[in-house]
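Schema walk-through. Below, the input block comes first and the output block second. Nothing else is stored per chain. Lengths vary across the set, and this one has 231 residues.
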Amino acid sequence: MTTARKGTDETDWNHLSHIDWSAYEGDDEPAEPSGYGRLIALCLLSLCALFALVVVGMRIDGVTLWERYATPAKTVNASASCFDGLYLGVPVGRAVRLRPDLALSPVTGGELAGTYEAAGVRHIVAFLDGEHGRKAYRFRTLRRVDRAGERAYVDALVAVHGKPVSSGCSNPVYAPGRICRNTWVIDGGISVEIVGRAVSAPNGGEIVELTATFVDLYLEGLKRHAAGAIS
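--- output ---
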């Protein structure tokens, strides 16, 4: 005689052994997402991608997040890219904050020109148009020095960037004195041109009007490309 199995509460559970539990058991395979669910997931992914593109393309101080964090930074050094607080590639909004004395004026093609003076040196900076972020793509500095000062300036560039790609002096008939010109193309795609023009000083001696021009060739290329597309 079989004795009924009982739990600790003296309840008889044998009647449960005759129930078919397959109807109550879950399926081992996960359910396939419905077509509606896949459509919702695809829409959400598309919205996330669109949001990411908008955020990455936002300009802050004329610079997109992609340009700020994904574009390799150019080599910046005191002799080539820094001009009393400013530098090649600086957006105009940041430039004004760094140099409150920067005087801006519009020029052709939607560009801006800025001027300021520091330590007796006049700086002229050209900014691209708004479509290209209004970044500084050209700096020109003007100063007056003696012959030794001109040589020291050129020697400082030679010490950092090596010999110029072209160098020479002449005495053109249209100029009252000697003109010397030295040019480099340095790291970061920056062209440098130093022009020294000898002029007579008020005391009868000779001084040199030294003009240094630094151009970011990549940014200048954006300007030329846009002009070519319009024409």
